TrEMBL record:
Coiled coil: none annotated. It holds the Pfam family Recep_L_domain. The keyword Signal applies. Keywords: Signal. Residues 56-163 form the Receptor L-domain domain. It comes from Caenorhabditis briggsae. The keyword Transmembrane helix does not apply. PANTHER family: INSULIN_EGF-RECEPTOR L DOMAIN PROTEIN-RELATED, RECEPTOR PROTEIN-TYROSINE KINASE. Residues 1-19 form the signal peptide. This is Protein CBG26973. Gene3D superfamilies: Receptor L-domain. InterPro entries: Rcpt_L-dom, Rcpt_L-dom_sf, SPS2_domain.
Length: 257
């Protein structure tokens, strides 16, 4: 019986993944309502078996998912997406063997439009990825309800996000979650709870707690907003902040206007 457990678990996980993809895709199609167009990509991953379904359109609706099954080189991926100038949906690169996101640079020469209200960009669990500078080539377009694209960059052990976040357009105009990478944006947590401040990319305003608050004396800019609760004597630590990008959520603290 034990020999059957692992295959059964794999089948269940695969079915759950497909169900999640179907739900995400349907949300995108319901939101943008691309009726009558032949520019919808409805496959759950980019591989040699699905690539013929990728529409040769300037405006594409759907999800671009690159994973461990993707059997294309960076040059081949660039060729696949060369006609696209706008994506209505999102991008996910997870568990891939890619070393770079350079395939993004072919979109509209330097930038491409990402309509991101319903999804965002997720770069996760890529053990070889060491170059994500191409995230700067994304021109994020969101509606009034969202206003910002959601970026999640996590568990890429060779990736230096510090360099990426020096680009003002990314660190200041996204809801950016970065952790588990070689280097993070702004203030970075280390095992002993010591923080390192990177002035060029700002401070992570959602990482304020009783341990880290003293390190924010150096900060003039935050991204991911300004969010904390149950902390006293905060005004002196945050007095140099003059720009906050993201939501403000302050509870049970003695901060003054």
């Amino acid at each position: 019986m034990n020999s059957l457990v692992f295959p059964i678990i794999c089948i269940l996980l695969f079915r759950n993944s497909l169900a999640t993809f179907d739900d995400d895709l349907q949300t995108i199609l319901d939101f943008y309502d691309p009726k009558g167009t032949k520019c919808v990509f409805n496959q759950s991953e980019i591989t040699s078996k699905t690539i013929d379904f990728f529409p040769k359109c300037q405006k594409v609706y759907g999800l671009i998912i690159i994973n461990s099954n993707t059997d294309f080189s960076l040059a081949q991926l660039s060729k696949v997406f060369e006609n696209m100038t706008a994506l209505y949906g999102g991008i996910k690169v997870e568990n891939s063997n890619l070393t770079s996101l350079s395939f993004l640079t072919v979109f509209m020469f330097t930038k491409f439009d990402l309509y991101c209200e319903t999804y965002g960009v997720f770069i996760e669990n890529n053990r070889y990825l060491n170059d994500a500078q191409q995230l700067k080539s994304i021109n994020q377009i969101a509606g009034e309800a969202t206003k910002e694209c959601k970026f999640r960059v996590e568990n890429n052990p060779k990736l230096n996000m510090e360099d990426v976040c020096r680009y003002y357009g990314l660190a200041s105009t996204t809801v950016l979650e970065a952790s588990g990478n070689k280097k993070e944006c702004g203030i970075t947590f280390f095992p002993n709870n010591h923080l390192q401040y990177n002035r060029s990319s700002g401070c992570q305003g959602n990482q304020i707690n009783t341990t880290s608050i003293s390190e924010f004396k150096k900060c003039t800019t935050t991204y991911n907003g300004l969010q904390f609760s149950n902390i006293s004597d905060v005004s002196s630590h945050l007095s140099k902040i003059d720009f906050i990008n993201g939501p403000i959520n302050i509870q049970n603290s003695d901060i003054q206007n």
